[in-house]
Amino acid sequence: MKTLAYLAGATALAATLASPAFAQMESSAGADAVGISDVSEQMKDVQDAVQDDFDRSGDAYRFGSPESRQGLYGSVALTYAGRTGNNESQDFSLAGRLSYNQGQFSQSVGLLLEYGEDDNGDKDVEKTSVIYEGMYNINDRFYGFALGRLTTDGLAADTVALGDDETFADLDGNLKRDAYFGVGPGYRIFNSDATAWRVQAAVGIRYTKTVDVLTVDATDDQTGTFEYNSETDIGYMLSSRFYHKFSDNFFLTNDTDYLTSDANDTITNDLGLNFKMSDAFATRVSYKTEYVSDRSIRTDNTLGVSLVYGF
Question: What sign does the dihedral 276-277-282-285 (CA atoms) show?
């Protein structure tokens, strides 16, 4: 009961911070012809991006296993756009998730297919991703988990994936396949309504298949020779999820992940400050750092500011 009370309190706080709702507007007749629909779609993209930023503060498993639908359930979504006329292009995406929850055990499998062609009808996206997540709560503090991901890129060695200022040599190191599957324990160090901190560690298998550029044509830098380099090794992962509520109107989150293997080391840290200025005004400021050991510029930093005001 205590765990459920903590969870309810955190959910209510997150909902309060994001409570200012964006106004919804129906498109009027003629909106497509005069360009109103295009602007409205761009406005919706901005609103979705803001909502996604607020959602990053959520952690359904912060205080324990949340009450969730039992049994088997899932969903599938598909989108397609084909264009003819001034340009010949098409985009296709399919996403699906299948979940199964039974008591303290929960698991889900997700699939994402992406395919796209540019204005010349050449493929510019061809990716497939599969993910798996599983968790078993032993008690309020200890849990076991498993997670996995497989991503394939059909254009990893294709020059159509290069930018305007890139050459064949820039394909070197592109991932044709990237996979990881690991299992391990987790522990909730702090588990109160004001402070929650959980850490987890996993050991698993890391598999990568990369493009190894051998030569670049001296007369045409868009052509050359390459081969695929496959590596399978042990991968270790450490993760931390920290939450602290300073007041009913202000809380902090800090998410850290570290994955290491012979392929590379990857570290991400996402710090978020979440403010509720009033019943109609909420703000989130975040600072995300991503480090990848085998990149020429190893560290990327992103400052994000999201604000929503409803009236």
Answer: negative
Q: Both tokens of residue 237?
A: 């992962």
Tokens 């008690």 belong to residue: 139
pLDDT at 55 over 60: yes
Q: Which two tokens stand for residue 93?
A: 């995406």
The total number of residues written for the chain in this structure: 311
Quote the DSSP letter at residue 222. T
Q: What is the mean pLDDT of the chain?
A: 85
Query: Is residue 309 within 8 Å of 280, Cβ to Cβ?
Result: yes
| Structure-token match 């840290």, residue found | 269
Beta bridge partners of 235: 204
Q: pLDDT band at 239, cuts 50/70/90?
A: very high
Cβ 230 vs Cβ 207: under 8 Å: yes
Question: Distance between CA atoms of 202 and 186, rounded to whole angstroms?
Answer: 9
Question: Is-contact 19 279, C-beta < 8 A?
Answer: yes
- Cβ burial 211-241 (10 Å sphere, 16+ → b, else e): bebeebeeeeeeebebeeeeeeeebbbebeb
Looking at the DSSP bridge assignments, the partners of residue 213 are: 226
| Cα–Cα distance for residue pair 262/249, rounded to 1 Å | 44
CA pair distance 110, 108, nearest whole angstrom = 7
Contacts of 18 (CB under 8 A, 6+ apart): 51, 54, 55, 282, 308
pTM: predicted TM-score of the whole model, two decimal places: 0.77
Sequential DSSP letters for 81-109: EEE-SS-BEEEEEEEEEEEEEETTEEEEE
Domain ranges of the chain: 2-22+40-64+140-309
From the number of C-beta atoms within 10 Å of its C-beta (0-12, 13-18, 19+), residue 250 rates as middle
